[in-house]
Known about the structure:
The protein contains 19 helices and 18 strands. The chain is an alpha/beta fold. Helix 1 links the parallel strand 1 and strand 2 (32-36). Helix 1 (16-27) runs parallel beside helix 19 (508-520). The radius of gyration is 23 Å and the shape is globular.
Amino acid sequence: xxxxxxxxxxxxxxxxxxxxxxxxxxxxxxxxxxxxxxxxxxxxxxxxxxxxxxxxxxxxxxxxxxxxxxxxxxxxxxxxxxxxxxxxxxxxxxxxxxxxxxxxxxxxxxxxxxxxxxxxxxxxxxxxxxxxxxxxxxxxxxxxxxxxxxxxxxxxxxxxxxxxxxxxxxxxxxxxxxxxxxxxxxxxxxxxxxxxxxxxxxxxxxxxxxxxxxxxxxxxxxxxxxxxxxxxxxxxxxxxxxxxxxxxxxxxxxxxxxxxxxxxxxxxxxxxxxxxxxxxxxxxxxxxxxxxxxxxxxxxxxxxxxxxxxxxxxxxxxxxxxxxxxxxxxxxxxxxxxxxxxxxxxxxxxxxxxxxxxxxxxxxxxxxxxxxxxxxxxxxxxxxxxxxxxxxxxxxxxxxxxxxxxxxxxxxxxxxxxxxxxxxxxxxxxxxxxxxxxxxxxxxxxxxxxxxxxxxxxxxxxxxxxxxxxxxxxxxxxxxxxxxxxxxxxxxxxxxxxxxxxxxxxxxxxxxxxxxxxxxx
Length: 521
């Protein structure tokens, strides 16, 4: 428990970004206090044993590391190993009585080319695939090195990117490029899904929120590869907490912050430990909570009209064995990467329209991944005899579950039905049971995420993602503005997913807020 009454920096929220900020700032010699509402740090990037009597440690919410730069991990001396998945994706398909699967290896090789040919009847679609991702790779190669630097202006980035790919990804709805460049509906869908993770939008949405989501999925370390932390997501945040504490930061858990009061030369933070209220002052306060929540802490009240709306269904399963697929593919290949379910382009748009009209999509689009194929250590003593599956469903906005009490169970049933549709047997036949004989299945809809993690609307990005550069007319007068972490109050900065460039498990929001504070103080 903290005994000091004043700090250089107070970090509100001990998620991965808050811990990154604390580690950088403490290493810079500043006094830092981290206040976390829950009983442990880590936020959405935690590992748990959700099934009684089963030692499997599942990454309950966030489950892959995307944008976290290797430089950031080196800066903080993180003792965490990120490993690559041998399969990028596998997409089962059925055409005219034939079953098969579109395999994308990592790295792509002869089997990928043959898989495209088997689906489409020729090599043209794979050539289009290679051209498109080479061009998107050019954009990623320009943007990725800027993520740990002050924000570049849009015109500076645009000057370094080929005109065609800039138009496709930044200027026009992504659906236009996908339908123009690809002819096969399944291939189109595989490309499109990266635009819809946690983002409820049509691929033709004029707001381009789907484009921004797509870009964030493709720019991590310049490669777009999402990697697996050995030991689960909790291993990453445990290492971050250790780095912060070793550098001198104080961390208090069970500390529910109720108010932030900015002043002329800092701010006062009020929090409750479950027994009594405490107040501390700080020269700067970093907010790891969503901007919508921050406004409440600043005394501005709740604004229902601007509350984010999450859109995902997360299901964690523990299996006694991997199921066989109807296509005949090796399950250890198909489940090793992202296995796409009901995600053909037409089905994605159909599901969006259904959800927009207030109905649970049928079929339910989603994707499945087996962590334990890449990292058996999460199974403990059961390694080699069990497997985990993570299902992530699309187009399940929070309002579906508010309007209909039965929508949650219906969504789970339809998610499992989408999986069963590509399997040689029902997935329930493979489910392990816990110590009480119950199937090992745990589901989280947006309302669960909001309840568990205080993410408004269950939005995993704290709100719609922004472009990872500054608008040409943006004011970049202060360090906070230059790093994309500013609020309306000079003493309060964003350090979470709500910061520009803050989305996903990247640590960028935390790094960039820390750099702004170091420049200011």
